[in-house]
Amino acid sequence: MTKKPTMPATPPAVRANVSVAAPASSEEAPTSSRATRAAERRAAIVDAAMEEFIARGFAATRLDDIAKRAGVAKGTIYLHFKDKESMFEELVRIVIVPVVARLTTLPPPAGSVRDLIEAFAGNFLREVIGTRRGDLVRLIVAEGPRFPSVADFYYREVVSRGIAAMRALIELGIARGEIRDKDLARYPQILVAPAMIAVIWQSLFARHAPLDAQDMLRVHLDLIFGERRTT
Amino acid sequence: MTKKPTMPATPPAVRANVSVAAPASSEEAPTSSRATRAAERRAAIVDAAMEEFIARGFAATRLDDIAKRAGVAKGTIYLHFKDKESMFEELVRIVIVPVVARLTTLPPPAGSVRDLIEAFAGNFLREVIGTRRGDLVRLIVAEGPRFPSVADFYYREVVSRGIAAMRALIELGIARGEIRDKDLARYPQILVAPAMIAVIWQSLFARHAPLDAQDMLRVHLDLIFGERRTT
DNA sequence: AAAATATGACTGACTAGTCAGTCATAGTCA
DNA sequence: TGACTATGACTGACTAGTCAGTCATATTTT
């Protein structure tokens, strides 16, 4: 390479909006025991690694950069992770698991199916679309084929559960007469597709043509449930 | 790295199902003038590069491997392309352009809007979903953020045109009363979303849970147009 | 023979991973 | 309590290897 073609990763000033650790008082807070400090460092490494991997992809990310961003020596990374690969794999688990936990903690099953799904979509909008986590989803799509274990994990923990949950909701909707089309239960992907497209769109094309994801999802739900009767 | 973790790229035996050149008689066919031979070599390089980039991503792909797969010395690549980066960029153009050309050559605008869209979907199924070109789309999603010029090109040549074409069809459908939901014209993405999801699904999750893309698209169109009246 | 092409050994910049040594903290003893 | 020792988290210079890009040489075409 004649010169570095890669654009700089998000500069350190713009910190992740999704942090693994508590606010991580950046400097000199020996608030803590050895174990605590170690945990903080690990979290700092995870945050830094996520930023770098999202910005550059797995292969092009340098461990030196992760170390610098985390404010840690390179060797320290190897105290916490076996190697670059397993760091990437663990990273995905660490970031994804709590999100799934939160999203699958459904709100009380009160109200119509549409209300349930709207609550779901609202969470998704807030927690994923247009956030670092959305970028992480794109990263998984990007690196999945080269990391079968990551793809497997993601399928098992996120996709299959999500599909199952959506299918259950759709079947409920059909049973209650809220949803007309009975075939929809066979392809819950259709229900989720616009949300996924929104994630990708924000990552790739937002600067060409911003997308009002919330409004789009509303239109999509109108399509499935029929126009929203203004309560 | 202690050992190569990457799985081998598709072995040379399994040739691309999408070739840039004519069948590329692999050995010794001096059928041709210099210019022709040069063009064949260039095409072989493009094919090989596509395979490798799809299998490994940009950063992890070695030019030595592309050369070997194309049956060419590494130096030869530099007779055709300035460097790895511009090879990738040109590659995308070279492969995408003819597909767009073919897909935008609409069949005679006869029949219902649904028929038009179904024809479109059929082409897309055949030409993209589950083919190397589908993988290329995933690759663009993957590398887009690191190759703004690729993302720009893809947006300009494929996405914006596709969206515009879909919008036109939707508006026609609304005008003719085939489509109920008027808001759909504001988000043609909704019409296309399941097809994109199918592309990604085949790439990432096919071996966990195969997806009948054709049937899914049919269900989706039923959702938009209402159940298909059996002609 | 001259020109156009093609080759692949070579170079140098770059980076994953290592490890001997440092030092703040935790633990022990008088 | 204060001094002294043990621990292991942390460091960063270093090694071994990789790979994009070059170019002197060989091969093919005209």
TrEMBL record, chains A, B:
<feature type="compositionally biased region" description="Low complexity">
    <location>
        <begin position="1"/>
        <end position="36"/>
    </location>
</feature>
<dbReference type="InterPro" id="IPR009057">
    <property type="entry name" value="Homeodomain-like_sf"/>
</dbReference>
<dbReference type="GO" id="GO:0000976">
    <property type="term" value="F:transcription cis-regulatory region binding"/>
</dbReference>
<dbReference type="GO" id="GO:0003700">
    <property type="term" value="F:DNA-binding transcription factor activity"/>
</dbReference>
<dbReference type="InterPro" id="IPR001647">
    <property type="entry name" value="HTH_TetR"/>
</dbReference>
<feature type="region of interest" description="Disordered">
    <location>
        <begin position="1"/>
        <end position="37"/>
    </location>
</feature>
<keyword id="KW-0804">Transcription</keyword>
<dbReference type="InterPro" id="IPR050109">
    <property type="entry name" value="HTH-type_TetR-like_transc_reg"/>
</dbReference>
<dbReference type="InterPro" id="IPR036271">
    <property type="entry name" value="Tet_transcr_reg_TetR-rel_C_sf"/>
</dbReference>
<dbReference type="InterPro" id="IPR011075">
    <property type="entry name" value="TetR_C"/>
</dbReference>
<protein>
    <submittedName>
        <fullName>TetR family transcriptional regulator</fullName>
    </submittedName>
</protein>
<dbReference type="Pfam" id="PF16859">
    <property type="entry name" value="TetR_C_11"/>
</dbReference>
<feature type="DNA-binding region" description="H-T-H motif">
    <location>
        <begin position="62"/>
        <end position="81"/>
    </location>
</feature>
<keyword id="KW-0805">Transcription regulation</keyword>
<feature type="domain" description="HTH tetR-type">
    <location>
        <begin position="39"/>
        <end position="99"/>
    </location>
</feature>
<dbReference type="Pfam" id="PF00440">
    <property type="entry name" value="TetR_N"/>
</dbReference>
<keyword id="KW-0238">DNA-binding</keyword>
